[in-house]
């Protein structure tokens, strides 16, 4: 026996997939916001310690302080890219499923705002988040290189 989907089934599925996409998007923004906040705090901590570093009072050398923290920052940024990419795939899958359901519901496309061909499914915020994470990643790489240069001089 094969089950035939009715209009209300497609409507319920459409709502389900839309809700899932919105839920994943919110969770992704929450995760990325925390990650970026933590990365900013880590960079602030590094530069605060570098600015008041006194080699006579220090228990560890400056490079031994900078290198592990910059590596931790790099790992955090790579995780942010991974989390964003996985979220984007999940959101795209849910929106595609939602679009397939919308095709089956007569009249829904007149009510629901549909993206145009020129407008991507993912708003520019995705690219802006990638740029912000890339800036943090570049900063941590620069701190790592700086720490390695200082270490090579010692």
The tally of beta strands, per DSSP, is: 0
> Share of helix among residues?
over 70%
Q: List the uncertain runs.
A: none
How would the global form be characterised? rod-shaped
Strand content: under 5%
Largest sheet geometry: none
What is the mean pLDDT? 85
How many DSSP helices? Answer: 4
What does this 3D model show about the protein?
The structure is a single chain. With 154 residues, the protein is an all-alpha fold. Helix content is 79%, strand content 0%. α1 runs antiparallel to α2, α1 packs parallel to α4 (125-153) and α2 (62-104) runs antiparallel to α4 (125-153).
Topology:
Elements: H1 7-51, H2 62-104, H3 108-111, H4 125-153
Helix pairs in contact: 1-2, 1-4, 2-4
Question: What key attributes describe this structure?
Answer:
single chain, 154 residues, mainly alpha, 79% helix
Quick overview of this protein structure:
The chain is mainly alpha-helical. It has helices at 7-51, 62-104, 108-111, 125-153.
């Amino acid at each position: 026996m094969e089950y035939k989907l009715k209009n209300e089934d497609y409507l319920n599925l459409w709502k389900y997939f839309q809700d899932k996409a919105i839920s994943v998007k919110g969770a992704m923004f929450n995760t990325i916001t925390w990650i970026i906040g933590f990365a900013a705090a880590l960079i602030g901590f590094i530069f605060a310690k570098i600015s008041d570093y006194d080699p006579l009072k220090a228990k560890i050398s400056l490079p031994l302080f900078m290198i592990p923290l910059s590596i931790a920052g790099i790992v955090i940024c790579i995780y942010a890219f991974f989390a964003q990419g996985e979220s984007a795939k999940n959101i795209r899958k849910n929106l595609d499923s939602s679009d397939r359901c919308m095709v089956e519901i007569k009249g829904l496309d007149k009510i629901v705002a549909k993206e145009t061909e020129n407008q991507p499914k993912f708003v520019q915020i995705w690219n802006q988040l990638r740029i912000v994470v890339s800036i943090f990643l570049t900063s941590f790489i620069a701190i790592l290189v700086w720490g390695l240069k200082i270490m090579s001089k010692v």
